[in-house]
Input
Amino acid sequence: MTITAKELAKKLNLSESAVSLALNNKPGVSTQTRKRVQEAAETLGYDFSRIRMTYAPAAPNGSIYFVIYRKNGAVVTDTPFFSQLSEGIDAGCKKYHYYLNINYLYEGSNIEKQLTDWQCAGTKGIILLGTEMTIHDLTPFIHAEQPESRPQYTAAQNMKNKLPLVLLDNYFEDLNLNSVLINNIQGAYSAASYLIHKYRTQPGYLRSSYPISNFDERADGFYKAIRKCGMSPSRSIVHMLTPSMEGAYSDMLELIHSGEPLAECYFADNDLIAAGAMRAFRESGLRIPKDVAVIGFDDMPFCTYIEPALTTIHVPKQYMGTVAVRRLHELIEESDAKPYKIEISTSLIKRKSA
Output
């Protein structure tokens, strides 16, 4: 008797999306999880003939690449956030009839050669996950010349036929690029405003010690709410924490033991930071939310499992991926389309931590 992917997910206490990614060897789950799923599937009699080339039989519009740019590993892509983003891109490719290729590129890679190879192979366009990227990292992907006052982007300018590009999860004011990203300012603003009105005090900030544009925008939203309520940003208690669960836990525990002043409530740059800090608070005898309240950002699946369940900002991750494919399709169909920025709105999910 065979087992279905849905039954396998239930047996392993994993999401159906995580099991699907693992079975299909797609990014979005850790190596350990992938191995666990595949070994369990073999043991329990999963029918691997179900796995097939998703788009090869019905991809009349050709192929596109989802490029995941990894810089120094501070932002981990083997998380539910990125797996759900991948699912959205996958769904978009089915809708618009593209074959999806997924490729990791790393800082220091010969990106110019890779782009040339893809172009020669007839690739229609690229969705570039730019979470970790700076403006300089985009050099090989930029085709138009920039003004003299800005960095010169020449690496791919000699390509006669440009590959349409959509930048996902990042945006740069200086560049005329099509971008799809989270409305970070709106999300952080709503989180901070909620804390201020509920607890009648100035919230603290569990801020990422690793600088990326998403976190910078969340800082803008947080301080915008502080100013709107007549408070001084300089009086906010800010703790710089590693943007991972274990890192934030260690950093916060050290700050507590050192006697660092604590706020009554906090907004965290992401759910990993929030969960790590909450663990440190609990181990130090603080009750959540009675002694200290916490709001995260992203609404990752574990938010409902930790104790107490994490109040957070929900990001429609799958929708972001689908919108990115839709925009790329428009660029492929309309070569003279003007670039624009698409910001996906967020929403506050109230649970028990705040």
Summary: The radius of gyration is 22 Å. Confidence is low (pLDDT under 50) at residues 52-57, 144-161. Residues 60 and 277 are 49 Å apart (CA to CA).
